[in-house]
Amino acid sequence: MKTKSLEEMIDKHIGKIGTPERNEFEAELKAELVGYAIKQARLKRKLTQSQLGELVGVKKAQISKLENSVSSARLDTILKVFKALNAKVSFQVELLNEQMKIA
Questions:
Q1: What's the whole-model pTM score?
Q2: Section 9-35 average pLDDT
Q3: Could you name the CATH architecture of 6-102?
C-alpha cells in the first residue's frame, strides 16, 4: 500500500490549490488557527474571556466567537485582541513564488 502525503490527501478530498473548495477550506483553517492562537495567548496571560473583552472594548461573546473561529471577525478587532494580549502579530504574503514578510 502506497503512503500518501497530506498534500495529496487534501488535493483528493478537498480539492486542488486554487479551486473554490480548497480556498474555502484554507480560509476556515486560517480562522481556526487565529482562534486557537487567541485562546492560547489569553490562557497564558491568565485572563478570562470577559477580562480580555474589557481590555479590547468588546463583550465576552465576541471573544468567544473569535476563539471559536467565527470567520466574520474584523481584522481590526483581531489586531486589538492581540495588542491587549501583548502578542506580536506578523503576516506572510506570497507573491509569485517569493515570500514577503510583514511584521
A1: 0.72
A2: 88
A3: Orthogonal Bundle (1.10)
